Prior knowledge:
Layout (H helix, E strand, L loop, with lengths): L1 H15 L37 E9 L5 E10 L3 E8 L5 E11 L11 E10 L4 E11 L10 E3 L10 E6 L4 E8 L16 E12 L5 E5 L3 E4 L7 E2 L2 E3 L7 E3 L5 E6 L16 E3 L7 E7 L8 E7 L11 E7 L5 E7 L1 E3 L1
Parallel strand pairs: 13-21, 15-22
Antiparallel strand pairs: 1-2, 1-11, 2-3, 3-9, 4-5, 4-10, 5-6, 6-7, 8-9, 10-11, 10-12, 14-16, 16-19, 17-20, 18-19, 20-21
Amino acid sequence: MFTAIISGIVLILTALVPTTITATVESAALPAHAGIGTATIDGIVEQGEWDEAASTSFFLLATDTGEMVPATLYSMNDESNLYVALVVERGDVNFSEIATLYLDHNNNANLDDGDDALRLSRTFSASSAQFVTRFVDSYGAFCDGEQCELQLPDVEDGGTNDGAGAVVNDGTSVVFEWVHPLNSPDMAHDALLAVGKKIQLRGNVSLLGTPIDEAVAGNLPTLDVFIVPADAEKIVAIDLQPHANPNELSLRQMRWATVAVLSSERLAADSLQRKSLTFGRTGDERSVRRMLRFDVNGDGLRDLVLLVQINKTGLQTADNVAILKGLLADGTAVLGLDTVIIHP
């Protein structure tokens, strides 16, 4: 029976894996991300600084030439802060460089009351004849259930500017870096980023050139970002129900689910101790029944696909996150998370 199930999974995944990928990532939702680490907010991506961050690459449009400009978005957290970096691979002399991050706490793809906006700009000041960097901590206000058009700076509503940012243009690329506290002292305006919480990270960026009509602009990809425990030794990317969006499970109508442990250049799924792998509500549930090795996402790297028994996962209808735990061959503990919708 298990052989038939596994064979079916292989056939389905083979049919779904693309041979080439030509689409440009704009603002579509991507798989859930998590990263662990601490960054120095100076606008410089040092070697190794963001190695343990979750990242995704995409393209922005250059309006003067029509070319697509490569960019990469990074996110990670430590025990105190959320760190985000945006690297745009174009470093022309610009009149201004502006990027805004939206922390969508209820994950509904809209900016609602209480959602946070972190605006970072480096603009030329005629009065001082120099570039001035500004970090503005604001929040969605007066939305009344509609998408917010107004982002009110916290300091204009009796709050504080919590966090920091830096922008550096080295002539080759433009780097934006943000830091924002997980447990902000300004609780009236900043939502708590507790361990295990998932937020949607969205935003936009604009590099205005000289002349002013030369620009690189666009939306950032929408990322589901998890706040992970700081004592996690290694984060591994997982994809529950590969190629499904959203990831939905039914406790009554489904017996099995698939979980892909995705290999990367930094971590091969084959390096995991297979008997150590557990998956479910807390990550400690022994629900894994079978495994196979297969390139799920067509990146040329062999992934590890787990067949899990749903009624052994402990997942409940109120849950929206599923957790994988395991060990690498050297004993390093790994953690993986993905979003899930649980139906009765």
